[in-house]
Design a protein that fits this description.
Blueprint: E1 9-11, E2 16-18, H1 26-40, H2 49-62, H3 68-77, H4 83-90, H5 104-115, E3 120-123, H6 130-143, E4 151-156, H7 159-167, E5 169-171, H8 172-176, H9 180-186, E6 187-189, E7 197-200, H10 202-205, E8 208-212, E9 226-230, H11 240-252, E10 254-261, H12 268-271, E11 275-279, E12 282-285
Parallel strand pairs: 3-4, 3-9, 4-8, 9-10
Antiparallel strand pairs: 1-2, 5-7, 6-7, 10-12, 11-12
Helix pairs in contact: 5-6
């Protein structure tokens, strides 16, 4: 229920509707909130109604539909429909950048130098690729040619974002902000019809395995344990129960001395006794036994 009327909507005898060309009621919005939570664990705030409308309206128009209720009925009636993937992609937020929260990367470099070439890294919120490529660049700068022996798993629930990540093509002006040395070492400038773009060099791309993965599903098809897990600014979209369950599962995927990197606004030690704070939003397992904690989803 909503505590106050919204000036962007009008009222009729059955429901509250947005003044848009497609029929979108508050009941539809509540259904969407429930579906995306059950599907992806994402908690959709009440103030996201406009965003939900604008993102899903494209799907309705693609299917020639005018009522959100009809779209949701069809979606729920077809459990194996490919439209579920499009629905989830549309409601997933992808805010990322190269070397975002830069204080983490010197810590990563130090750990890579200490652990050597046999390490495994998991980026659990790959988005459009900027973060896993930043990890790969850091490993290359630290280990040189031996970096090819390090593999990075990069996962995300948004398959469209992963397609962008795999392509590894970005606006040249964005890449140039990394500096001349990195731009030359890790990217190829586009020419002709590709002018204004830059592509990740093949040797950097070869270090990363991009895969779709839903953190709230019953099983993770990944090959741990990992030395390092980056899961930054992902947990903020989940409620506390989901966060705690994911952290429990992370603990089972980490080496006893592994590190877990969180976003600047996330506090994992507050949520789970399995972790203790080691540095600025960097965590390690509280004890070797923490790694053996059971998976609550099983």
């Amino acid at each position: 229920m909503f505590s106050a009327p919204d000036p962007t909507v009008s009222v009729d005898e059955n429901a509250v509707r947005f003044t848009r060309d497609l029929d979108f009621t508050l009941r539809d919005f509540e259904r969407i909130r429930d579906l995306i939570y059950r599907r992806a664990g994402i908690v959709m705030a009440e103030n996201k109604r406009e965003m939900v409308y604008s993102r899903l309206a494209k799907r309705l128009r693609l299917h020639g539909m005018t009522r959100f209720g009809d779209y949701l009925d069809r979606l729920e009636g077809r459990a194996e429909s490919e439209e579920w993937e499009a629905f989830t992609n549309a409601l997933t937020t992808n805010l990322t950048a190269f070397f975002r929260e830069s204080h983490h990367f010197p810590v990563l470099a130090e750990e890579v130098r200490r652990r050597g070439t046999g390490i495994k890294i998991w980026c659990a919120g790959a988005s459009t690729g900027e973060e896993p490529y930043s990890l790969a660049m850091t490993v290359r700068e630290t280990l040189g040619p031996a970096a090819s022996q390090v593999k990075i798993l990069a996962t995300d629930i948004d398959t469209e974002a992963l397609n962008t990540a795999r392509a590894g093509v970005y606006a040249l002006e964005t890449v140039e902000k990394l500096g001349e040395v990195r731009c030359r070492q890790f990217f190829q400038r586009g020419s002709g019809s590709r002018a204004g773009k830059a592509r990740v060099r093949p040797e950097l791309a070869a270090m990363i395995d991009f895969r779709p993965l839903n953190l709230v599903t019953g099983s993770w098809s990944i090959n741990g344990p990992f030395d390092i897990i980056f899961c930054r600014n992902v947990m903020i979209y989940f409620d506390r129960e989901t966060q705690t369950n994911i952290l429990r599962r992370f603990s089972a995927q980490m080496k006893p001395d592994g590190l877990l990197f969180a976003g600047h606004s996330e506090n994992f030690s507050f949520l789970s006794q399995a972790f203790r704070l080691r540095g600025q939003t960097v965590y390690t397992l509280a004890s070797p036994s923490s790694r053996a904690m059971p998976d609550a989803s099983r």
